[in-house]
Amino acid sequence: MKLYRTRAGIVIERDGRFYMASGAVWDDVVTHPDLLSHLRGFIHPAATTVPTPQEVLAPIGSQEVWAAGVTYYRSRNARMEEAKTAGGGDFYDRVYQAERPELFFKATPHRVVGPGAKVAIREDARWSVPEPELVLFISPGGKIVGYTVGNDMSSRDIEGENPLYLPQAKVYDRSCALGPCLLLTEEALPASTEIKIEIRRAGAMAFSDVTALKEMKRSPEELVEYLYRASSFPKGCFLLTGTGIVPPDSFKLQVGDEIAITIPPIGTLLNTVG
Ligand code: DO4
Ligand code: MG
User: Fold this and answer.
1) pTM of the predicted model, to two decimals?
2) Which of 65, 130, 142, 179 could form a disulfide with 115 if both were Cys (CB 3.0 to 4.6 A apart)?
3) Within 10 A of 246 (CB to CB), how many other CB atoms are there?
4) Ligand 1: does its nearest atom lie under 6 Å from the Cβ of 13?
5) Hey, what's the torsion of the CAs at 42, 30, 185, 108, to 10 degrees?
6) Are 255 and 226 in contact (CB under 8 A)?
7) Residue nearest to atom 6 of ligand 1 (CA)
8) What is the span of the domain harbouring residue 6?
């Protein structure tokens, strides 16, 4: 089952048909203790039309957005390289090997954009990249109940100058994109699940790459266990699980670039830089 937050309200997709969850409130729905059965109550004979891309909003209410870092070897290597001159390269290898994962606060809901909206690059950054990531939606009780697609926009020059600048490299207005929907399933996504990115500039492909969940060093459950150790999330929480794709150092995002991130069972998150 998939859940869309749209301008007209919450829309449920089941078996290729779409249903309006009339009167439903996002935070109440996604924190329902028996979410799938609760949603089945909204399935009725009168299916609605497919929501248009213009109608779809980020699948978030009042939840916090957190992120895990250096969960893929590719991210460890790129970051060791960019922080070398600052003397911080070693920290990335240490966190890749350590039992405790890197977890950082990524965004409040107002810093998140949805499908079709513009993600931003900081005006004081010279080297920005997208990070295509699988995103977990976790219930208040700490159970993974859904998945979405995420873009953890990052300013590599700011983080590379000094790892202590991480919050500035990562957290700013429109630094996070989520969508297009929440895939609700009780089953874990298979390790073969692919995460694909395509970036187009003036209509031409500027960068593309693909990775798979099997490349991730840590399990989603392990990340959730650490996140929930000393924090409570009464409305649930989103957790980006880290990037396995880093463009070559010569690549820098520009205004106008179109970023398409696809995770096949969930869908494609499409944003423009602006
Ligand atoms: O260590 C800095 C952030 C890492 C990150 O965002 C990632 O690996 O995806
Ligand atoms: Mg990231």
Assistant:
1) 0.97
2) 179
3) 22
4) no
5) 140
6) no
7) 69
8) 2-56
Instruction: At 237, list the tokens.
Output: 């929480």
Residues 222, 121 within the same domain: yes
In the chain (274 residues long), the average pLDDT of successive 10-residue segments reads 96 93 94 94 84 94 98 89 82 94 98 98 98 98 98 97 96 98 96 98 97 98 98 98 96 98 97 98
Q: Is the CB of 64 under 6 A from ligand 1?
A: no
Asked whether residue 191 falls in the same domain as residue 257, the answer is: yes
Buried b (16+ CB within 10 A) or exposed e, 158-183: bbbbebebbebbbbbebbbbbbbbbb
Strand partners, 167: none
Give 111 Cα–ligand 2 centroid separation in angstroms. Answer: 16
**For ligand 1, atom 5, which residue shows the shortest CA distance?**
69
Query: How many angstroms separate the CA atoms of 233 and 224, rounded?
Result: 12
Indicate if ligand 1 lies below 6 Å from the C-beta of 175: no
Closest residue by Cα to atom 7, ligand 1, is 69
Q: Are residues 133 and 213 in the same domain?
A: yes
